[in-house]
Amino acid sequence: MFESDETGYSSVSFGIEFYMEKEDQEPYKAVYDEIVRSIEEAEGTPPGEYFIFINDHYIDKRRGDGKKKNRLERGNSNLIIKE
Predict the structure, then answer these.
(1) pTM, full prediction
(2) Rounded to a whole number, what is the distance in angstroms from the first to the last CA of the chain?
């Protein structure tokens, strides 16, 4: 593990993906906003860049992900930075 002064936020990136519980559910903006707000306000989280994604229920079994056009994300241009 890193000591708190050994690394800056740009040294570590966290990609966090969420999936909707039911098959026919599209990603909900309200759920996404609540997740993002919780991470932004959380205390004691490790310093780093946080990329947040919320997907529908679909997961491609060959690739192990569910990236589709309906995905909601907070990525490169609007990531969460915790210092």
Answers:
(1) 0.69
(2) 16
